[in-house]
Amino acid sequence: MPLAKVFFWGMIVSFLGTLPLGTLNVAAMQISVQESIADAIYFSIGSLLTEMAYVRISLVGINWVRKQKILFKWMEWIALAIVVALAVGSFIAAKQDNHAKNVMLDNNMNRFLLGLMLSAISPMQVPFWFGWSTVLFQKNILQPKNSFYNFYIVGIGLGTLFGNCVFIFGGKLIAQNLDTNQNIINWAIGGIFAITALIMFIKILLDKGAAKKIGEMEKAKRSAI
C-alpha cells in the first residue's frame, strides 16, 4: 500500500505538472500536428526518460547536483536559445504555406532522441521535482528506500506521458478541425514559445532559475529527512 501511494502521488503530480503550457508539451503537440501521433509519442517517451533520470539523481545524488551551478547556468541559456529558435521557426512556418513545418523540427533526427535532448537541457524540472519530493518526504509518503524511489519514478514517467497525450491528441484534433487554417496553429504555438522564452529570460536575469532554486531546496530536503 505505501508503494502504491507513492506511485500514485508521483503520477498525479507529474500529470498535473505537465498540463501547463511549456516547451516540451507544446513541442510534442506540434510534432503530432505536423508529423504524426507516433512521432510525438516517441518524442514524449524520450523526454520523460530524461525527466525520470533527473529525478533519480536529485533523490540520491543531490550533493553532486548542488555543485553543478555553473553547468545549470549554461543549460538555462542553451534552453532559452532553443525556445527562441522554436518560436522563430513557428512564426516563419506561419508566414509560409498552410502546411509549412517549424524549421527547428524540419530535420531527420529521431524524435525519441530529440525528446531526450530537449528534456536534458530543461533544468527547471530538477527544482520542480526536488520541491515535490521534499513535500512527500515531509508527509512520509516518500521514504529514502530504493523500492520507494523506483515506484515513485515509474509513476512520474506515466504521469508525464498521460499529460503529454492530452496535448498530442488534443492538438491533432484541433488541427483536423482547422485543416484549412493550420497557420493559426503555428502562430499560436509560436506565441506560446515566445512567452515561454520571455519568462525564462526574466528568471535568468533575476537569478531565479534552476541553479538558484537547487541551492535553496537542498536545505529543505536535509531538514525534511
State the helix count: 10
Measure the end-to-end span.
21 Å
- Tell me about the largest β-sheet: none
Residue-averaged pLDDT: 79
Beta-strand percent range: under 5%
In terms of per-residue confidence, which ranges show pLDDT below 50 for 5 or more consecutive residues?
Answer: none
| Structural class designation | mainly alpha
Oligomer: single chain
What proportion of the residues is helical, as a percent range?
over 70%
Overall number of structural domains: 1
The Rg value, from CA coordinates, equals 18 Å
Order of helices and strands: HHHHHHHHHH
Characterize the structure shown:
The protein has one domain. Helices cover 80% and strands 0% of the residues. It has ten helices and no strands. Helix 5 (69-95) packs across helix 10 (210-224) and helix 7 (125-138) packs parallel to helix 10 (210-224). The protein is globular. The relative contact order is 0.22.
Task: Describe the secondary-structure layout.
Elements: H1 2-18, H2 23-34, H3 37-60, H4 62-66, H5 69-95, H6 111-120, H7 125-138, H8 146-177, H9 182-205, H10 210-224
Helix pairs in contact: 1-8, 2-3, 2-8, 3-6, 3-7, 3-8, 5-9, 5-10, 7-10
Keywords:
single chain, 225 residues, mainly alpha, 10 helices, 80% helix
Give the gist of this structure.
The protein is 80% helix and 0% strand. By secondary structure, the protein is mostly helical. Helix 1 packs parallel to helix 8 (146-177) and helix 2 (23-34) runs antiparallel to helix 3 (37-60).
